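1st attempt posting a full record on here, be nice pls
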Amino acid sequence: KVGVEKGLDSFLRGTVGLVRHEVNASGRVIRKLNEDPSSSGKDIHLTINTLLQEFAMYRIEEFSASVVVIDLETEGISCLASSPSFNPNQFVEGMSQKDWDSLRNSDNQPLANRAISGNYPPGSTFKMLVAIAAIEARLVDPEELINCSGFYQVSERKFHCWKALGHGDKNLVESIQESCDVYFYTLALRVGIDRISEIAKKFGIGRVVSLPLPGVSKGLLPSKSWKEINYKEPWLKGDTLNSGIGQGFLLSTPLQIAVMIARLATGLEIKPNLIKAIDGKPVKNQNKRIIDINRTTFSIIQKAMFNVVNEKTGTAYKSRVVDKSKILAGKTGTSQIREISENERLKGIKKNEELPMGQRDHALFAGYAPFDNPKYAISVVVEHGGGGSKVAAPIAR
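the predicted structure (as tokens):
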């Protein structure tokens, strides 16, 4: 009814056989006329690593969360975990109305596959793409220092940085490393939403990932024309500022974020798949296309992602891997889902732990390892988990 078994039903089902007999008036068989033999369905071998899948589910069992891991060599999805989940055998054996109602009406939505259909603001994990757009358009020198005083003002409105007192003067690598919002407000306005969207598409944001699964979401990559059509309103500077830090109208799935990281790690147009073999015959990968981005640009972004995890001021430093053969690089993200008033800022912003669960930020981490020879890309999204560095990064590690 759902999932891989629905997506690959034509392979799995096989064909029904038929035998025709001649019978007399009383129904007794006189002779066999002909026979169309049945055929077995094909065996489908998935790319999922069952031990990794089980461990990921164990690791996120206390959360509403998802984990996606992509093997960068084979492009196979090694892990596609969504929690909470459910036992599909209940649907085969039959269940009570009470059990069905508990699944259908649960606030935690166990029937949803968050990894492929959950739509979340990507938050600061999106900043690398804004940086690429600016570098490629030659609208920023990576060494240029931009001052963060704690907010960026447009007319009467202040767009705040997560660090209230500001980061001071920062260059591009430092701004990704410390996740400075004001730096990316500045870059976003220079570049504009159309250039940002153009780059984002190259990295899989706003694009459907082709998998044999129902319900794979496209996410939402906004543009000036999109807002005009859907809201009958013009695109504003504030919309560009919000997009610059992965907020506002922008939505992506955990799978899309993993694809983005896979492409950032390799410079190749990674297209993840779920089928390893059909009836024992390996499914061949297509030749990976090189993404049309300057190699130097990739090196700058990869250096910044290394620093996020491995430098003391990096937002994910506590989740670093000491083993030099398994060095982790990545980016934390914290997606705000409520508006913070100026009054609250004056009195003191409430911590996530002080808020009702439904108002807490989403926690994200996206990364790859090993840094020198990338083999795996990962994305972790924890709904209402709070900070990406506190909750999502340790899971990814």
